[in-house]
Design brief:
The protein is built from 6 helices and 5 strands; from the N terminus they run βαβαβαβαβαα. It has helices spanning 12-24, 40-49, 68-74, 93-100, 115-130, 134-152, and strands at residues 2-6, 29-33, 57-63, 80-85, 109-110. A 5-stranded parallel β-sheet has the order 2-1-3-4-5, sandwiched between helices. The chain binds 5-O-phosphono-beta-D-ribofuranose. Residues 7-8, 10-11, 35, 62-64, 85 line the site of 5-O-phosphono-beta-D-ribofuranose.
């Protein structure tokens, strides 16, 4: 099971890129809006109890002073993948730096800013689960094969 957390409902347009991939792969996932700053206690409680629901990987999306992925990682030993949301003021550079610049000891796998990062967060989560899940691994193989075929077909 993959847990997808976003800091605000306003992140959903970006995060839905990740959710679409999880749907396409038929992966089990749950989605939550929880904020490191606005709902810190609820976030901690959710992350600390997630293993009881079978969560094995977290995806955390936030923008601006994006503490979410780091705070999630501080409450779990499962892998945490961060999506830095693109922002109006700083184009997501703020989100990227706050997601990626974690102190030693609390790792977060930060993806790229915005929708490409969201899509990759889902694929990365599936790659982690695919280590022990042959069905997911073979779908990921097909994904790479299809991409290769479609690039090779391009004629200019
Ligand atoms: C972050 O603040 C959220 O992840 C969101 O990207 C940003 C702005 O949130 P809203 O003011 O739109 O709710 O915590």
């Amino acid at each position: 099971m993959i847990s997808v957390i976003m800091g605000s409902k306003s992140d959903l347009e970006t995060v839905s890129e990740a959710i679409d991939v999880l749907k396409e792969y038929g992966a089990r996932y749950e989605v939550k809006v929880l904020s490191a700053h606005r709902t810190p206690k609820e976030l901690a409680r959710y992350v600390e109890t997630a293993h009881q629901r079978g969560v094995k990987v977290f995806i955390a999306a936030a923008g601006g002073a994006a503490a979410l992925a780091g705070v999630v990682a501080s409450h779990t030993n499962f892998p945490v993948i961060g999506i830095p949301i693109e922002t109006k003021s700083l184009k997501g550079l703020d989100s990227l730096l706050s997601t990626v610049q974690m102190p030693a000891g609390i790792p977060v796998a930060s993806m790229a800013i915005g929708k490409p990062g969201a899509k990759n967060s889902a694929l990365f989560a599936l790659e982690i689960l695919g280590i022990c899940d042959k069905k997911i691994a073979s779908k990921l193989n097909a994904h790479k094969r299809n991409m290769r075929i479609s690039v090779k077909k391009v004629k200019i």
